[in-house]
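Notes to self, 3-deoxy-D-manno-octulosonic acid transferase:
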Amino acid sequence: MSRKPFALSAYLASARGRPTASPSVVPRPDGPLIWMHAARLDSARALAALAARIRAQRDEISVLLTWHPSVPAQPYPGCIGLPLPADTIADAQSFAAHWRPDIGLWTGQTLQPALLSRLSDTGTKLVHLDAGNDPWHVPGPVWLPDCTTATLALFDRIFSIDDMAHRRLRRLGLPDERLRRAGPLSESAPPLDCSPDLHEEMAQLLSGRPAWLAARVRADEAAEILQAHRRAIRLAHRLILFMVPASREDGAEICRIARASDLRSVSWDDGEMPDENTQVLVTEDDAELGLWYRLAPIAFLGGSLRPGHGGEDPLAAAAHGAALLYGPNVGRHLAAYTRLVDAGAARIVRDFDSLASAVSQLVAPDRAAAMAHAGWDVVSQGAALTDKVIAQVFRWLDGEDDPRDDDTNAGEAA
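result:
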């Protein structure tokens, strides 16, 4: 075991004491185990999605997902979920001895030197997935020497979210061969399935009519969306709206509201097909959502106009190449919406009036296409990091050496 830097040794000396957490009562599964740590709720969702992709390809792999105390505890399908204990020597030894992770994936700017050091000593390959340009934080007394660089040096790979973060890591003296630029970690989902024959039939039936989609709508939003559509068709007379509910219960009520409006509507589930005079097409569930995403260049994401729903995942919608509109109540996916807005891929609307105005502007194909392209860039960045991490994980589990050209930007001057 190599001698540890003084700053890290001083931290470890200060971290001695009684364990703060009880020994885990969850048994360690047999076979390879990957440990993932989430600093925030959005990173927990992204790591759970990454775990699902890993297990879809190698179901013998188990995943332990831990989270920072600020992250609300909730189940993550396919993962063993636990809060991370405090960073003491005793807790670190207990965690490492019980779980024996083959690989550890860490997120966030807060580090736990005692735990990371213990795992590195016992042979766990460590990866930091979203190193940013924000200040690093290490728990411990302020009088201790800063052990940030020594702790980061424990990672076998560090993926930075952008060039500024990459330059900062290089200035800390971290070796180039361990650094990678790959964009921010995000929850990525593949595009939804769609029947090619049905898509071709509907595209021919619509004959190039402008269209927009209200996806996974709640019943209490339906009236405002229909009102926005009523206003938008004053400027685009052939515009058609596809309304897809969040649930069958919402769908039944939305169909009733649409039938009671003065807009000409058809029900997809009743076998009705749109004609040139149809203004609204409503469905009772989201079974064909992939079709509607492909037919509509503009998508409003439901669960966002009224409080209490938290919004829908915008990255799944962006993966289909749509310009995105959303309401102000998207707390469940705020980080993803912020990234899309910053990239110019999404626009917030406050009410039916601003929704109608946004739809009217985006009916122009060039405007919708520019937003859709920006959204695709955001989704592609997250997918690129996911692909690189999965490939690296599988190489290590299989005992393979890293290829020399693993990442062509690893040693570039930023």
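- Residues 404-414 have pLDDT under 50 and may be disordered.
- The chain has two domains: 6-22+30-185, 196-376.
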